[in-house]
Design goal:
Blueprint (H helix, E strand, L loop, with lengths): L1 E2 L8 E5 L2 E5 L3 E2 L4 E4 H4 L13 E7 L2 E2 L3 H6 L2 E8 L3 E2 L2 E2 L6 E2 L11 E7 L2 E6 L9 E6 L4 E4 L4 E6 L7 E7 L4 E2 L1 H5 L5 E6 L2 E6 L8 E4 L14 H7 L5 H4 L5 H4 L5
Parallel strand pairs: 14-21
Antiparallel strand pairs: 1-2, 2-3, 4-7, 5-6, 6-8, 8-17, 9-10, 11-18, 12-15, 12-17, 13-14, 13-16, 19-20
C-alpha cells in the first residue's frame, strides 16, 4: 500500500511493504538504500536484539526536475526516509547515531533540517561524542513539525510510534557523509530510548559521564526564516532560504548556544 504525503510539497508516494518510494512525473529520485538491522547493531543498546530485518529506507537527492540545477548550484539536497513499524528489542525503531562528515566546500560539519511527514519522531542530539557529551536534547515532533540539528552535533532519529511507520524529509548538504566510528566506540549515543508500553523512557549510556537529558517540543526557528509551510515548498518560493544548510558559516553567530 502506498501513501502520498500530498501536503508536504513533493509529488511522491511512500510504500511500506516493501519499503520504498515512487515519484510523480515532475519528480526524480534514486532507488532507496535499505538499512539492515545487522548494519546498525553496533549503535543499539542490545546489539543482539530482534527486530525487522529491513529497518529503514532512505532516498537522498529527491527533487523536482526543474529544481535540479538550482540545488546543485547551492550544494543542497533533499532526502526522504521511511521506517519499518515495530521495535528493536526494547528500543523503538531508530537510525544509527552519527555525526556529519566535514564538507570540503564549506569546512563545516553540516546541519540538517527535518520535517516529519507521517508518524511521530524523536530527534535526539548531543553536542559531542566524548566522555562529556555536552548538552543532550530529545525533540519530540509530529506530522508537519520541523527540527533543526546544528553543525557538528551527533544525532539519531527515533520512531515514537511503534505501531505505525515513521516518514520524514530533510534538507542536507549535497556533499553529505556520515561518521559512525566515534559513536560506535561509545556503544551508541549518551541516552538510549526504551519502549515502555506506548511511551519512551530514557536510559543513560554508562560509557559517558552522567548528565542531563532535556526533552522538548519543536520550535519555529524564526531566526533562520523558516515558516510552517512544507520545507520543499519553502525552497521553491525562496531558493536562498536554506543556504545556511550547505554554508553554515553564514549563520555562524546563530549556532552559538543554539537551542533546538
Amino acid at each position: 500500500m502506498a501513501e502520498q504525503p500530498s501536503s508536504f510539497g513533493l509529488d511522491m508516494s511512500i510504500h511500506h511493504s516493501p519499503m520504498g518510494f515512487s515519484y510523480g512525473e515532475e519528480v526524480i529520485g534514486p532507488l532507496p538504500e535499505i538499512r539492515k538491522l545487522d548494519q546498525i547493531r553496533a549503535s543499539l543498546r542490545d546489539p543482539t536484539c530482534a527486530g525487522p530485518e529491513d529497518v529503514y529506507a532512505i532516498a537522498m537527492d529527491v527533487a523536482r526536475l526543474s529544481d535540479r540545477e538550482e540545488l546543485k548550484k547551492r550544494m543542497l539536497l533533499f532526502g526522504v526516509v521511511t521506517y519499518a513499524s515495530g521495535r528493536l528489542g526494547e528500543e523503538p525503531v531508530r537510525s544509527q547515531g552519527h555525526v556529519h562528515r566535514i564538507s570540503e566546500h564549506s569546512g563545516w560539519s553540516p546541519p540538517e533540517l527535518y520535517e516529519i511527514w507521517q508518524g511521530k519522531a524523536i530527534i535526539y542530539m548531543q553536542e559531542y561524542v566524548a566522555d562529556d557529551p555536552g548538552r543532550c536534547f530529545a525533540v519530540c515532533a509530529g506530522a508537519g513539525e520541523k527540527v533543526l540539528v546544528p553543525p557538528g552535533w551527533a544525532h539519531a532519529t527515533i520512531s515514537a510510534s511503534p505501531d505505525e511507520p515513521l516518514t520524514f524529509g530533510a534538507w542536507c548538504d549535497r556533499e553529505y557523509g556520515f561518521e559512525y566510528d566515534a559513536v560506535r566506540a561509545y556503544k551508541g549515543l549518551a541516552w538510549y530510548p526504551l519502549l515502555q508500553d506506548e511511551n519512551i523512557a530514557w536510559q543513560h549510556n554508562r560509557h559517558y559521564m552522567p548528565g542531563r537529558l532535556q526533552v522538548v517540543s519543536p520550535r519555529s526557528y524564526s531566526e533562520f526564516g523558516i515558516t510552517g509551510e512544507p520545507l520543499y515548498q519553502q525552497f521553491i518560493a525562496e531558493p536562498a532560504r536554506f543556504q545556511f544548510i550547505s554554508k553554515p558559516g553564514i549563520a555562524a553567530q546563530k549556532w552559538v548556544n543554539f537551542h533546538p
